[in-house]
Each structure stands twice: as structure tokens, then as C-alpha cells.
Amino acid sequence: MIDVMTASSPLLVAAVAIDIDGTLFVQMGAFLLVFVILNFVLIKPYLKTVEAREESVQGSSEEAGEMDAQAAVLTASYDEKLSKARREAQDVRESLRNQGLAEQDDILEEVREELGGKLAEERKVIEDRVVAARAEIDERARALAEAMVQKVLPQG
């Protein structure tokens, strides 16, 4: 353990060596001069830089906030336009679908009329053939009947 209270203690000897005299004012003047120089050379520029950085960050934050608000407005506008375009596209699709269905009905009607005409013609042809075939059958039946009569009944 170090004994500080004895006359031979190095701490006591050092404390006695420091005394207050005129150099204290010189040292205080040198300290103040260094402080003033450091204040102008180092501390104030550093504080200005920090303040400018904070203002820049603040300005950037405000600008980012404004840009976010603009982005939200643009997004809402985009969504509205997209929705409107989808509705218009759906209307156009529905209109084209209805137009296609109407054309389909027209084509079907034309085909039905054409097929109805052809069917009537074919029925007429078949009916004519049936009439002709019946006439031929009747004629053959008469000829056969005459032949049978001639064979059954003696010739006089």
C-alpha cells in the first residue's frame, strides 16, 4: 500500500511542485486560444456539417413522403383507369359476342331456308319417282294380269 501522507511520498512531492503562479494565466490563455481556434477550425464546421446532413435527411424524408403521396395518387389513378379499361373491354367483348350470336342466327336461318328448299325439291323428286314407280307397277300388274288371263282362259 502506498503511503500518501508521508514526506517521502512521490505524490506529495508532486503536489507540492505544482503551485499557482503567473503561468496558470498563460496556460489558461493558451487553452482558451486553442479552444477558440478549434472552435472555428473543427467544431463549428463539424456542427454545420451535422446540421446540413440532418436538414438533408429531413428534406429527403419530406421529399420521400411527397413522392409516396404522388405514388399513391398515381397508383389510384392507374387502378381506376385499369378498371375502366377492363369494363370497356368487357362491354366490347359482350357486344362482339352478341354480334357473333346474331350473325350465327342469321347464318343458321339462311342454311335452314336453303336446306328446306333442297329438302322440298328432293321430296318432290322422290314423290315423282314414287308416282312413276306406281304407274309402272300398275302397268306391269295389268300386263301380268292380262298374261295370266290369257293363259287361264282359252283363246276363242
UniProtKB/TrEMBL annotation:
It is a single-pass membrane protein. It is found in: Cell membrane; Endomembrane system. One of its GO terms (cellular component) is endomembrane system. It holds the Pfam family ATP-synt_B. The keyword Transport applies. F(1)F(0) ATP synthase produces ATP from ADP in the presence of a proton or sodium gradient. F-type ATPases consist of two structural domains, F(1) containing the extramembraneous catalytic core and F(0) containing the membrane proton channel, linked together by a central stalk and a peripheral stalk. During catalysis, ATP synthesis in the catalytic domain of F(1) is coupled via a rotary mechanism of the central stalk subunits to proton translocation. This is ATP synthase subunit b. The chain crosses the membrane at residues 24-43. It comes from Lujinxingia vulgaris. GO terms for molecular function: proton-transporting ATP synthase activity, rotational mechanism; proton-transporting ATPase activity, rotational mechanism. F-type ATPases have 2 components, F(1) - the catalytic core - and F(0) - the membrane proton channel. F(1) has five subunits: alpha(3), beta(3), gamma(1), delta(1), epsilon(1). F(0) has three main subunits: a(1), b(2) and c(10-14). The alpha and beta chains form an alternating ring which encloses part of the gamma chain. F(1) is attached to F(0) by a central stalk formed by the gamma and epsilon chains, while a peripheral stalk is formed by the delta and b chains. Belongs to the ATPase B chain family. The gene is atpF. Keywords: ATP synthesis, Cell membrane, CF(0), Hydrogen ion transport, Ion transport, Membrane, Transmembrane, Transmembrane helix, Transport. The keyword Transmembrane applies. It comes from the Bacteria.
